[in-house]
Specification:
The protein has helices at 16-26, 43-49, 62-72, 92-101, 121-138, 154-157, 169-179, 204-222, 224-253, 259-298; strands spanning 3-9, 31-36, 53-56, 77-80, 106-113, 150-153, 184-191. With 305 residues, it is of the alpha/beta class.
């Protein structure tokens, strides 16, 4: 069985050697790939010295790196982690064994922080909030949807149509698994503080906004009937609310004195019906798209077969 360890990196000179060494010790038969994303330090040189296969992705953003890695690398099992030495490589063999033994498509390394500085309070709150939102939107979720430590089957990787540009890629990965109802699991894993000299590239508010926007966009793509239906119901409710005084006046006098309001009511109701029918049409389109993705997923054998 061919195992590939995928490590996306951006300015990780201080941590990449430790990360490569940890996965080399845990998975001695695996090929370790470091994908550099326009680092301005010695990340590439240090990774090569540590024995990793180093490649580059010029389009900036973790999403672009993951898209390139999934497209380029051929393997049976993929282990993905960050190159910042915050994840525990020693649990990788057990995660791979569980993936193969239970024929799963993804295992998420749910983070258990070992130091208060490892996981900022704002990120912890954002993770809980986004996890709850995802569960409401898609019916089920993971306890740590933003974890960068994951093990994938080949059929997951080769059926995943990556579209994200940045750190919201983890959200898109989670939604892909939930949408296709893949067999998945979570394993608790230690989460360490970065080594001295290594700095986080995350921005609590900027990346939180991008992730929230990604969830809204994915919901519009994956649940268009509910998305546009809700907008249609809101427009219809406003239209009916504005129409009540007009109807009362008409019943009392037989006149419609406020023509601008009447025109607005009519326009809002027309828009409400358009939103409803748009949701119905797009829901049919989405069903066909999900079937195509499912067929692409089924084109590859389960892990261990």
């Amino acid at each position: 069985m061919k195992i590939a360890v995928l490590l996306p990196c951006y300015n990780e000179e201080a941590a990449i050697a430790q990360t490569v060494a940890g996965f080399r010790e845990a998975l001695p038969d695996a090929t370790i790939y470091v994908y550099d994303n326009n680092s301005r330090d010695r990340t590439v040189a240090v990774a090569r010295e540590a024995g990793a296969v180093v490649r580059s992705e010029r389009i900036q953003g973790k999403g672009a790196v993951v898209r390139r890695m999934f497209a380029d690398i051929e393997a049976d099992v993929y282990v993905m982690a960050d190159g910042d030495a915050t994840y525990d490589p020693s649990v990788a063999p057990a995660m791979v064994a569980q993936l193969v033994g239970e024929q799963l498509d993804m295992i998420v390394g749910s983070r258990v922080e070992q130091h208060q500085a490892a996981y900022r309070r704002g990120h912890r709150f954002g993770n809980r909030a986004m996890t709850g939102i995802l569960a409401r939107l898609f019916g089920r979720s993971f306890t740590d949807i933003f974890s960068g430590y994951r093990v994938f089957s080949r059929r997951f990787v080769k059926s995943f149509p990556s579209l994200s540009a940045g750190f919201e890629i983890e959200t898109e990965i989670s939604v892909h698994a939930l949408e296709l109802k893949m067999p998945v699991a979570e394993v608790e894993t230690c989460y360490f503080a970065r080594p001295e000299g290594s700095h986080s590239k995350l921005s609590t508010y900027r990346d939180g906004w991008r992730i929230a926007r990604t969830i809204a966009t994915l919901y519009r793509f994956e649940r268009p009937l509910w998305f546009f239906g809700a907008i249609g119901l809101l427009l219809a409710a406003v239209s009916l609310l504005l129409a009540v005084p007009l109807v009362v006046t008409y019943l009392q006098t037989g006149l419609v004195p406020r023509f601008p309001t009447a025109i607005l009511v009519t326009g809002l109701m027309i828009l409400a019906f358009l939103c409803g029918f748009s949701g119905l049409i797009l829901d049919t389109v989405v069903r066909g798209r999900v079937e195509v993705r499912r067929l692409a997923y089924l084109a590859h054998p389960a892990p261990g077969n």
